[in-house]
C-alpha cells in the first residue's frame, strides 16, 4: 500500500515523539475558540503518560463491559458516557438494559481510574499543542473498542475505511487513542495508519501507548484489518466548543 514509514514500533518505549504538519483548512469553516482551536497541527505518540499496569486495569474494565454484549462482526464498542454497547447487529444502552446489575460489573475505582487517565491525556495534548487544558472539552463519542478478525456483519463493523475525524464527528478538534494491547503479541494487523500524500505513517499499538493528533484532514487515517487475536483501545476526544462538551462517566 505505497511507501510505509513506522512512526512508532511496538517495541519502542517513547518518552515523546511529535511531528508537526501544516493545518488543513477544515478549521476555517468552524467557529474559532481562543486558546484551543489548533494553530499548530500534527501527531504525537507517548509511552510516558499511562503505565502498562494502568492500561491493563483499563482493559479489564473494557473486557467486563464488553462481556455483556459484543458485535456479531469484528468490531465492538462500549461507551461509558452514553451507555452504548454493541449487541449482535445493534446497540443497546448498557445502563437501561442492565439497570442495577451494572454495580456488579463496574466499581467507583474503575470510573476514577478512567477519569484520571482522561485528565492526564488531556494535559499532555494541551502541553504539546501549546493550548489551555481548561479550554478543551471532552466530547462524544468517546469509547472502548474491541477488534478481532471476525468478518463484518454490518457497516458498524467496517472500521478500516480511511476517514477524517472532524468530518466524521464534527465536534472533534483533538483525538487520542490509548492502546490496551500489544501489536504482534496480542494481535496481528490492526496498526494505525496516517495516510499522507507521499507515504503512510503507521503506529504499532502497545499497552499504555497514547497516540494523539489534531482531528482535521491533515490527519486522514485508517486502521488496518485485524488478522488474528484481539485489539483493545479507547478513543478519547476533545472539542474546543463548550456546547459539545460531555461529563465524565460516573457510576
From TrEMBL:
Cofactor dependency: L-ascorbate
Gene Ontology CC entries for this record: membrane
Iron recorded as keyword: yes
Molecular function (Gene Ontology), one example: iron ion binding
Keywords carried by this UniProt record: Dioxygenase, Iron, Metal-binding, Oxidoreductase
Domain of life: Eukaryota
Pfam families according to UniProt: 2OG-FeII_Oxy_3 (PF13640)
Keyword Metal-binding: yes
Annotated ranges, domain Fe2OG dioxygenase: 140-242
Name of the protein this chain belongs to: OGFD3 protein
Record organism: Catharus fuscescens
Source species taxonomy: Eukaryota, Metazoa, Chordata, Craniata, Vertebrata
